[in-house]
Design goal:
With 471 residues, the chain is of the alpha+beta class. It is 31% helix and 15% strand. The chain folds into two domains: 256 residues, FAD/NAD(P)-binding domain, CATH 3.50.50; 159 residues, Elongation Factor Tu (Ef-tu), domain 3, CATH 2.40.30. The two termini are 13 Å apart.
């Protein structure tokens, strides 16, 4: 059947999930209309009209596909012709063992690829109501910042109250304002990653006294006040503001974003810093660095004052200060089937962070699956879901039923989740060393992770071949 005979699939939302879904649909030979409201209507955190704009970090996290779950997800998405991963690889910047990107060039690359695709039409209008009935194949990928009118319409359709959590943004510093007589370049354990050298982060050391002073000032700093409707909204643990972490214990940050492990100050190699603030390159030119893990809801003046107490950042100039925004997601295990369709209206699929996945790569991965499912349906068949032993399959199962509901199916039992090995099914065989002896401790953990990623690679290959045969 020629593509002219297919009516288009409609994708609402031009973020990572929507962009990836549209790419997958177009590459399957099915026309697609990608609806994005920006720039006609902006959000509180987006600053451009570019598709797949990154608004928080510029990191896709670990690229290690042998011992890291998100690295395995990277690998799987590359095998599945992911646009997000292709552009991420092309626009990478040094980040140790992580894959980080120049956020502006990445968005521009995704936008250009979609605009150039002959089967993809980009519609720059806001969708404020439920899709009309003649849109018989729709993906809602509006993300955590769904426009209020559409969110209200979706809520009336599902009969479910939105779940919400806060997400915070880290500050970005101009590179030439960092004092490299105090700070130094080094990745943890000198680890190099894609495009990296092993010296990819700027490190600012703190003594015990400086750390104590920083924590005291952080706890006393003035924070953005909540609106009444925000007072009961929880945080997502993977993106906690630094002040919230500090409130959980004065040493919390030393075991989080300020941990000093794997780093040696070349100016004082015999004395380990008590804590370290790291900055990661944010653009290809290397002129901007973001403060790793320093999401915050402090008022802007307080941020400037506090961050300039960090050794090496005394004269820091900021390209962007931290911020806070409210994210929403649906009760996916109750509302969606295993092909991401709304159970009560199967013409509608959901993808991305609105489904309760968390993280750039995870959002794009769910968009990838939604796009493939939608395209296959338009072409007259529905492929099987990827095996739960794969990273992308494990993520899908978590979203569509892998959580543990309470007896009353309490909506609060479902929470946003990054991909992690805890979502993978256990290995069937015990982990043993080459000599047949059981492994223990770190050696066992490492071997277990490597066995899980090896199984995932094998099973993804089998699933891909099966679905290619079905096509």
């Amino acid at each position: 059947m020629s593509t002219e005979q297919h009516s288009p699939v409609h994708v609402i939302g031009g973020g990572l999930a929507g962009a990836e879904a549209a790419w997958q649909i177009g590459n399957a030979g099915v026309p697609v209309v990608l609806h994005e409201m920006r720039p006609k209507r902006m959000t509180d955190v987006h600053t451009t009209e570019g598709l797949a704009e990154l608004v928080c970090s510029n990191s896709f996290r670990s690229d290690d596909s042998d011992t890291n779950a998100v690295g395995q997800l990277h690998w799987e998405m590359r095998q599945l012709n992911s646009l997000v991963m292709a552009q991420g690889d092309y626009h990478q910047v040094p980040a140790g063992g992580a894959l980080a990107v120049d956020r502006d060039r990445f968005s521009q690359g995704v936008t250009a690829a979609l605009e150039a695709h002959p089967l993809i039409t980009i519609d720059r209008h806001e969708i404020t109501r439920l899709p009309p009935d003649d849109w018989d194949n729709v993906i809602v990928a509006t993300g955590p910042l769904t426009s209020p009118d559409l969110a209200t319409a979706l809520r009336s359709l599902t009969g479910e109250a939105d779940l919400a959590f806060f997400d915070a943004i880290a500050p970005i510093v101009h590179r030439d304002s960092i004092d490299l007589d105090i700070a130094w370049f080094q990745s943890r354990y000198d680890k190099s990653g894609p495009g990296g050298s092993g010296a990819d982060y700027i490190n600012c050391p703190l003594t015990q006294a400086q750390y104590a002073q920083f924590i005291a000032a952080l706890l006393a700093a003035e924070k953005v006040s909540f609106h009444e409707w925000e007072s009961s909204t929880p945080y997502f643990d993977g993106c906690l503001p630094i002040e919230v972490m500090a409130e959980r214990g004065t040493e919390t940050l030393r075991f989080g974003p300020m941990k000093p492990v794997g780093l040696t100050n070349p100016r004082n190699p015999n004395e380990k810093p008590y804590a370290v603030v790291q900055l990661r390159q944010d653009n290809v030119l290397g002129t901007l660095f973001n403060i790793v893990g320093f999401q915050t809801k402090l008022k802007h003046a307080e941020q400037v004052r506090l961050l300039r107490t960090i050794p090496g950042l005394e004269r820091a100039e900021f390209a962007r200060l931290g911020g806070l925004h409210r994210n929403t997601y649906i009760n996916s295990p109750k509302l969606l089937d295993d092909k991401l369709r709304l159970r009560t209206q199967t013409r509608l699929r959901f993808a991305g962070q609105i489904t309760g996945c968390e993280g750039y790569v995870e959002s794009a991965a769910v968009g990838l699956l939604a796009g493939r499912f939608a395209a296959a349906e338009r072409l007259g068949f529905l492929p099987s879901a990827p095996p739960v032993t794969t990273a992308i399959g494990a993520l899908l199962v978590h979203i569509t039923g892998g959580h543990l509901p309470t007896e009353k199916d309490d909506i609060s039992s479902f929470q946003p989740m990054n991909v992690n090995f805890g979502l993978f099914p256990p290995l069937s065989d015990p982990i043993v060393a080459a000599d047949g002896k059981r492994l223990r401790g770190n050696a066992k953990s490492l071997a277990r992770k490597m066995a899980m990623t090896a199984r995932a690679k094998r099973d993804l290959g089998s699933w891909t071949m099966t679905n290619m045969a079905a096509e």
